[in-house]
Automatic annotation (TrEMBL), chain A:
It holds the Pfam family BPD_transp_2. This is Branched-chain amino acid ABC transporter permease. It comes from Nocardioides pocheonensis. One of its GO terms (molecular function) is transmembrane transporter activity. The chain crosses the membrane at residues 6-27, 34-54, 66-84, 91-112, 138-155, 185-205, 262-279.
From TrEMBL, chain B:
It holds the Pfam family BPD_transp_2. This is Branched-chain amino acid ABC transporter permease. GO terms for molecular function: branched-chain amino acid transmembrane transporter activity. Coiled coil: none annotated. The keyword Transmembrane applies. PANTHER family: BRANCHED AMINO ACID TRANSPORT SYSTEM PERMEASE (PTHR30482:SF18), HIGH-AFFINITY BRANCHED-CHAIN AMINO ACID TRANSPORT SYSTEM PERMEASE (PTHR30482).
UniProtKB/TrEMBL annotation, chain C:
SUPFAM superfamilies: P-loop containing nucleoside triphosphate hydrolases. GO terms for molecular function: ATP binding; ATP hydrolysis activity; branched-chain amino acid transmembrane transporter activity. It comes from Nocardioides pocheonensis. This is ABC transporter ATP-binding protein. Residues 2-216 form the ABC transporter domain. CDD domains: ABC_TM1139_LivF_branched. Keywords: Amino-acid transport, ATP-binding, Nucleotide-binding, Transport.
Length: 284, 324, 231
């Protein structure tokens, strides 16, 4: 029982980080219909930058916040290229973001080298349900929940958030009422940068990240977002948690190398099972 | 849609390709470029006609390579048999996974194929019957009957022969009944459906065809290397195929070849530059990633139809003086 | 307040508007009628700045808001959010004025716009346009697909708006009798050109216009909602 609880708790904290990256996919896809392959890269940039800033004696909190904000700017730049000219097909934009993620990899190696980086985080453990949990992992869960609440409130309660939702809901009508849909797309990318960056600074203390982690991060985030049809933040959170727990249970009871396998298989199954709804959504 | 290049151009290219192995001292780059062209020819069809991007074409290269590796080392099959078997196995594998996978579209299929590649990789590295952690080594040299390949050069010609077969069959297929169905897909799927085209099966067909080409390339790679493991098929290589397909021009027979050659030469040149003495060891990966990214973005945003169609329409346009 | 001079709009090779001139005074109500594909919607979109002019000019002193064809709701958002977004260009989030004007919307505030009836949606569309406090309201197909009673009510709101607030109205309308009835002046568009313009009463008497638009229909006032399918 204790074993199970350990897997459950670590799975939930791990899944929270998937969900956080997944929320970046959702925010961008909702507004622009683009799937942003560079979503995982934001996390790495933030982790590397936070580590550098912390070494430069910037206090905790400030260093992480600065790194996350820089990721917001990087996100907007990625969006600026990915949105391309008007009428660029979303699938072409996906491949453009693939190219961008490669450019980001080049930049990361140039600035920080090829070695994995793990900035210091919260130290120590707490006991939860009789299970020892790293404080840092609990922080991931807590910040993820807060971030999701903030995103939900932003979209439903603020004027700007409503304009973003409107751009996704009916771009023509949005332009009609004077909303600059392209600028909203850039804003969505910037927000995705912030969310990805947040995931990076939170995950890196427990799991070191290197320039080549982008693919794994992007895939786990995308898998979580698939649960929400790439448009629902709430179901993305659930998806992330399910994937995290399923992965930990597989690793614990079966074999560690099947962990990603299970996540990918789950993702494929959900995608195929819901393919009809997806086609309808894409056609909208 | 498929504009035929002038016969002269094809003859010149073919002669150059046949002479190149005689001049080159190391065939590795040449073989890899030609085999990439084989994979990209199939991918270009899939992307150009079925309008679906595969980010995991390496999965089928892996299946082809694995067929050769296991067929020769475990079951003692003759090299020629496994070479012919490899595209069949890859095509069959694609048919089986393609049925559910191709219900996905666009982004979902792109990620689905990438997931397939990663799962194939994990399967290869964790199941001992498929090579396991150490991979399959000791693959015998290629040979037919009593003749066995002893140096690199014959592999260059073997690869060229495969490319010739792939290009020839692509041209035949595009003009066939199946080809017409395939071309109908590139317009609107709904329209194709109402015109009586079996959309689902046609897509699976194109998918399987592209996988068979990839499997053939994988087979030659396995003989050439001669070692096959999960790490032989990194996702980056599959992304490179997409870059080559896009750069060359989707849905054209020669686009795959042009894209593979242009991108390979470019990367090789940059590789040479970045391995100059005096540069830091990180220069190579930096330049490599930067080149991939830049080529892809520039190609997509400024040459969205690829080199072959763009050049083709230029050539047609000039003498007539009016847009085609 | 609105001056359209010699306006040409092209979609690729096709000419949608071919030298259209039209002037509107402040507080005026003008109807724009004509067959399908005459360029009425294009003219409205050019006025709203959504389509660029190939040549000629559109100048407007004051704000323009459009009630688009097909009503173009944000379907998964509430009526309230739809309205609030209408004021985006001037950051107007105060609903009270519009709710005073269109009191029916008060009880629909929390409903999802996509779930409403056509008439309710049209009212939301008008309300959303009014949130921008326009000096000119450009309406594309007011009556399309709506029941006569609903149309009459909407028309009444527009009359009040024009009388009370002095809002100018440019109305594209398939239903010619409604157009003539509501707007003192009418402009007839055909194949991208103005073929007739003047007081609605005179045009209604004109043989050419009668034949073209009342033709087989006979009874004025009957709805012709089935003649055009929204794009």
């Amino acid at each position: 029982m204790k074993e199970f609880l350990t897997y459950l708790v670590t799975g939930i904290t791990l899944g929270a980080s998937f969900a956080l990256i997944g929320s970046g996919f959702v925010v961008v896809h909702r507004v622009t219909r683009i799937v942003n392959f560079a979503q995982g890269s934001f996390a790495i940039i933030a982790a590397m930058m936070a580590a550098s800033l912390l070494r430069g004696r910037l206090p905790h909190g400030l260093a992480e916040a600065a790194a996350v904000l820089v990721c917001g700017v990087v996100g907007a730049v990625v969006g600026w290229v990915a949105l391309g000219r008007r009428g660029t097909h979303p699938l072409i934009s996906l491949i453009v973001t693939l190219g961008l993620s490669m450019l980001v990899s080049a930049a990361i190696i140039l600035l920080w080298g090829q070695d994995p980086v793990s900035p210091p985080g919260l130290r120590g453990h707490v006991t939860l349900l009789g299970v020892d949990v790293e404080r840092q992992r609990l922080l991931v869960l807590l910040v993820t929940l807060l971030a999701f609440a903030a995103v939900a409130l932003f979209f439903s309660r603020t004027y700007l958030g409503k304009a973003l939702t409107a751009s996704a809901s009916n771009p023509y009508a949005a332009r009609l009422v004077g909303i600059d849909v392209r600028r909203m797309g850039l804003l969505a990318f910037a927000l995705a940068g912030v969310l990805g960056g947040l995931a990076g600074v939170l995950v890196a203390p427990s799991n070191a990240l290197s320039f080549s982690s982008d693919l794994a991060l992007a895939l786990s985030g995308f898998a979580a977002a698939v649960f929400g049809g790439l448009s629902s933040p709430g179901r993305t959170l659930v998806g992330g948690l399910v994937l995290g727990v399923a992965g930990q249970l597989t690793a614990g009871y079966l074999n560690g190398s099947y962990q990603t396998e299970v996540a990918l298989l789950l993702m494929l199954l959900i995608m195929i099972a819901r393919s009809r709804t997806f086609v309808a959504e894409e056609a909208k | 849609m498929t504009r035929r290049p002038s016969t002269l151009l094809v003859v010149v290219a073919a002669v150059a390709a046949c002479i190149a192995p005689l001049v080159l001292s190391d065939q590795t780059f040449f073989v890899h470029t030609v085999l990439a062209a084989v994979v990209v020819s199939g991918l270009s069809m899939l992307m150009g006609y079925a309008g679906q991007a595969s980010l995991g074409q390496g999965a089928f290269v892996a299946v082809g390579a694995l067929t050769v590796a296991l067929g020769t080392t475990r079951w003692g099959l003759p090299p020629l048999v496994v070479l012919l078997l490899a595209p069949l196995v890859a095509g069959m594998f694609a048919t089986v996974v393609g049925r559910p996978l191709l219900r996905l579209q666009g982004h979902y299929l792109a990620f689905g194929t990438l997931a397939l590649l990663l799962m194939v990789q994990t399967a290869m590295s964790s199941i001992d019957a498929l090579g396991g952690a150490y991979g399959v080594s000791g693959i015998p040299a290629f040979g037919v009957g009593g003749w066995t390949v002893t140096d690199q050069r014959p592999y260059a010609y073997l690869a060229l022969a495969c490319l010739a077969v792939v290009l020839w069959s692509s041209a035949r297929i595009v003009d066939s009944r199946f080809g017409r169905a395939m071309r109908a897909l590139s317009g609107s799927e709904t329209a194709a459906e109402s015109a009586g085209v079996p959309v689902g099966w046609t897509k699976v067909g194109v998918f399987a065809l592209s996988a068979a080409f990839a499997g053939l390339a994988g087979a030659v790679t396995a003989f050439f290397t001669p070692y096959v493991s999960a790490d032989s098929f990194p996702p980056l290589e599959s992304f490179t195929y997409v870059i080559m397909a896009v750069v060359g021009g989707l849905g054209t027979i020669w686009g795959g070849v042009v894209g593979a050659v242009v991108v390979s030469v470019l990367l090789q040149a940059l590789n040479t530059v970045s391995s100059q003495p005096g540069l830091p060891p990180t220069a190579a990966p930096i330049i490599q990633y930067a080149a991939y990214g830049t080529v892809l973005i520039i190609a997509l945003l400024f040459l969205p139809r690829g080199i072959v169609p763009s050049v083709g329409s230029l050539r047609l346009r000039r003498p007539q003086g009016s847009p085609a | 307040m609105l001056r359209i001079d010699d306006l040409v709009v092209r979609y690729g090779a096709a000419v949608a508007l071919d030298g259209v001139s039209l002037h509107l005074d402040a507080g005026e109500m003008v109807a724009l009628v004509g067959p399908n594909g005459a360029g009425k919607s294009t003219l409205l979109n050019a006025v709203s700045g959504l389509v660029p002019a190939a040549s000629g000019s559109v100048t407007c002193e004051g704000r323009i808001a459009q009630v688009p064809e097909g009503r173009q709701m944000f379907p998964d958002m509430t009526v309230e959010d739809n309205l609030v977004l209408g004021g985006w260009s001037i950051r107007n989030r105060d609903l009270s004025e519009v709710l005073d004007l269109l009191p029916d919307l008060v009880r629909l505030r929390k409903a999802k716009a996509g779930r409403l009836s056509g008439g309710q949606q049209q009212m939301v569309a008008i309300g959303r346009a009014l949130m921008a406090k326009p000096d000119l309201l450009a309406i594309d197909e007011l009556s399309l697909g709506l029941a006569p009673l609903v149309v009459a009510e909407l028309a009444e709101h527009l009359r009040f708006l024009n009388r009370d607030r002095g809002t100018a109205i440019l109305l594209v309308e398939q239903e010619v009798s409604l157009a003539f009835d509501l707007c003192p002046r009418t402009c007839v568009l055909e194949a991208g050109r103005v073929v007739a313009a003047g007081p609605s009463a005179e045009l209604a008497e004109s043989e050419a216009v009668r034949r073209a638009y009342f033709g087989d229909l006979g009874v004025a006032g009957e709805l012709r909602a089935d003649t055009e399918v929204p794009a």
